[in-house]
What we know:
Layout: E1 6-8, E2 14-18, H1 22-40, E3 47-51, E4 58-61, E5 67-69, H2 71-76, E6 84-88, H3 92-103, E7 110-113, H4 120-124, E8 133-138, H5 147-154, E9 158-165, H6 167-173, H7 180-184, H8 189-198, H9 205-219, E10 224-232, E11 238-246, H10 249-258
Parallel strand pairs: 2-4, 3-6, 3-8, 6-7, 8-9
Antiparallel strand pairs: 1-2, 4-5, 9-11, 10-11
Helix pairs in contact: 1-10, 6-9, 8-9
Amino acid sequence: xxxxxxxxxxxxxxxxxxxxxxxxxxxxxxxxxxxxxxxxxxxxxxxxxxxxxxxxxxxxxxxxxxxxxxxxxxxxxxxxxxxxxxxxxxxxxxxxxxxxxxxxxxxxxxxxxxxxxxxxxxxxxxxxxxxxxxxxxxxxxxxxxxxxxxxxxxxxxxxxxxxxxxxxxxxxxxxxxxxxxxxxxxxxxxxxxxxxxxxxxxxxxxxxxxxxxxxxxxxxxxxxxxxxxxxxxxxxxxxxxxxxxxxxxxxxxxxxxxxxxxxxxxxxxxxxxx
Length: 274
């Protein structure tokens, strides 16, 4: 069964089929949720977790059949919890399964949404606490999230974000990219930037795409970045970067601290930048 498909978990609810690399991604999300809350609880009384692609809360690793918690359940397991949780997925069956899993284990302050990731922002914003420290995990299959949605969600908010940035697929289509990528990069100007920069000697195309996107984030107030987590397939092909961005250097410091070891316990080597 291909990754991204669904199946039934051991509890009879829906689960998402995932590749083995999902364990690494979720490892870093778990560690950041932990350090985010323990490190900031005395400075920020209100702390929110936002998951725009929450899925059903459980993943099945395709090759092994191992069942693991997804990002919503991970966020709910923090010893020092977030004060508010916001879960969204466009798949109604996924959200129904997530509700069932959460209701049996948690009494946290949770809001659920079953809307397109871009449309949900208008519903979510009025419900966010007026003054809080936020962490938003954006984990699309491709480039469904429009940059303007991120702009709207993060304006005048202290919000750290972690984005699954699919450079592998982007590189494959960049020469004749679909219009959806213009929305992802905040307009078509990225095309000429990509063409110019990727032709420079020694520049890797994935790095060029990251730099273009990070500049867009700088334009809306983000100052500190960590893009050193590169996720590969079992054959070593580039899949995506787990891109972290914060409006404060402290956020990047926290992410740096939790990202030095992979889920296997190995120290990660920093990816050289051109």
